[in-house]
Amino acid sequence: MFPVKVTCFRSTLVALGLALTTLSTSASSAYFNQRHAFSEAPTSVAFQNRLLVRDLPLENGAFQRVLYTAPPQKVRGVIVMFSGGADNLGIQQNGAIAHADNFVVRSRALWMAKGYGVVLVDAIGDQSMRGKRSSAAYASVTQQIIAFAQQQSPAPVWVLGTSQGSIAAMNAASHASQTQIAGVILTESVSVPGGSHETVFDAHPEEVRVPALVVANRDDRCKVAPPSMANAIAQALRNAQVSVLFVQGGHTHSSNACASLSPHGYDGIEANVVDQITAWMARVTG
């Protein structure tokens, strides 16, 4: 078992939010065993202003939509990002995002400013991903997403999940080797059973063998993602080299403590969180 390193910092800076123009389109994809008739070929993409939208073919004619955004400079790495909640971002074929409050969407400009490309993962067929992220079927999907990320750059690929998305990131990392991904970042992870009836502990943390970072906000009041569980998550990653990062702060704009615009979603402290995570990534890759 590798040692667990704990880092604490107090966040005080307000981060720049990234706003994208929202345009409506009607194309969507289906879940694992469903089919959907697309008005155009599913392999068609939009690539302009460093945006690439791709529908990855799954079993029985279903598709997984992803959006890759490249940084303006040389790519240091590519991060596959799994959002929280139902994971329905509403990625449009032109690169617009219908639901952009989640931390991984809001922080894209910050990651790209540091040289990282970002792959955002949408829900399959506009359906809720709650309760499906730890499954073997979804692990297979994550393998295809990682392969897509590898195609965008020879730089290291990382997986990052926030809240419910951390279950997906853990599942991806537990089925990936060090030749596929450089490491996994778990932020405000769902570690206590709630409405989705699954946690990061259901996604086989014992099978993760790549470097892992567990990030927890001491001010997070989300009942299914208590910061007190950070060390338990790290201990479950018993075959990985693990670091635990505690942060503090954030704005509260909702009575829902698990909402994106809250300490649970790092609202107002995005820049410091990104700084600390990318510093860890740089140490891992040397």
Overview of the structural elements:
This protein has 286 residues and is α/β, with parallel strands linked by helices. The protein has a single domain, classed as Alpha/Beta hydrolase fold, catalytic domain (Rossmann fold, 3-Layer(aba) Sandwich), CATH 3.40.50.1820. The chain is 21% helix and 20% strand. It contains 6 helices and 10 strands, in the order E-E-E-E-E-H-H-E-H-E-H-E-E-H-E-H. It has helices at 103-106, 108-113, 136-152, 165-174, 230-236, 270-285; strands at 4-8, 47-48, 51-57, 63-69, 77-82, 116-121, 157-162, 183-187, 212-217, 242-247. Strands 1-10-9-8-7-5-6-4-3-2 form a 10-stranded mixed β-sheet, with helices on both faces. Strand 2 and strand 3 (51-57) form a beta hairpin. Helix 3 crosses helix 4. The chain is globular, with a radius of gyration of 17 Å. The relative contact order is 0.17. Mean pLDDT is 83; it is low at 1-47.
